[in-house]
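Everyone, carefully examine this protein record:
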Amino acid sequence: MNTDESELALFRAERRVREIQTKLHRWARDDPHRRFDDLFNLVADPAFLLVAWDRVRSNKGARAAGVDGSTAASIAAGKGVADFLDELRSQLRDRSAWESPRSGIGWSRHL
């Protein structure tokens, strides 16, 4: 993917994420007791993953390795961002991303 295509993809993803966030905010404001049972699908949504990747890549800690020992730069130079995000999406959807590669301890956060 060339730079113009990746910038356009990020722009579209940011717009989609912003639209969904606005809709969720409106629903929560209109009904404070509303339950949002299906938010997990948003975590694995390609637009949300791309926006999250961009935020992680551009933050101060981007040069530090994550729990898997990889940095943003090593992922981009190695398998590539698109392949990495596709693999992550698959792992999120089949719940195999729950295991920490370093500790072997599963993690989850109950909301």
